[in-house]
Amino acid sequence: MKKIILTFILGLFAFTMNAQDQAASKAEIKFEKNAHNFGQIEKGGDGTYEFKFKNEGTEPLVLSSVRASCGCTTPSWTREPIAPGAEGSIKVKYDTNRMGAFNKTITVQSNASNQSTIILKINGEVKSTPEKPSTPTKQGGSVIAK
Question: d(Cα 69, Cα 5) in Å, to the nearest integer?
């Protein structure tokens, strides 16, 4: 009976130590910022922003899925594993040919032990391009509007 109890206690101790080692040696993701406000953008303007992150863990970080909340936002990201201490990025492009205010999310799934799912946010407002005012010019004694 003593051998069974001793074996059980040693097994439990070994299991606990192994679990602590595994928890300490995981990938950890840390973004510089999780949201970006474009403010006002002209129609057809640059609606691109790059979210930068770092693997602060001890194992490679892998982004398994990066999805935008709609088809008007296109993400592109670092697809190879990010080594411990290395940096990666997710570039997000919003279609600025769509007029009006926008508030979109990008869902990031990874093997990070601290946050396996992260929500990134972009927002702003697309305004119409202001028309150039016509300026009158003098040509041969008459005024012509451009």
Answer: 55
Q: What is the pTM of this model?
A: 0.71
Residue 99 burial (CB < 10 Å; 0-12/13-18/19+)? Answer: exposed
CB atoms within 10 A of CB 6: 10
Say which residues have a Cβ less than 8 Å from residue 26's Cβ, sequence separation at least 6: 57, 58, 59, 111, 112, 113
Q: Is 84 helix (H, G, I), strand (E, B) or coil?
A: coil
Place 62 in a pLDDT band, splitting at 50, 70 and 90. Answer: very high
pLDDT value at 103 more than 60: yes
Which pLDDT score, from 0 to 100, does residue 8 have? 61
Which secondary structure element, helix H or strand E, spans residue 23, and what is its range? helix 2-24
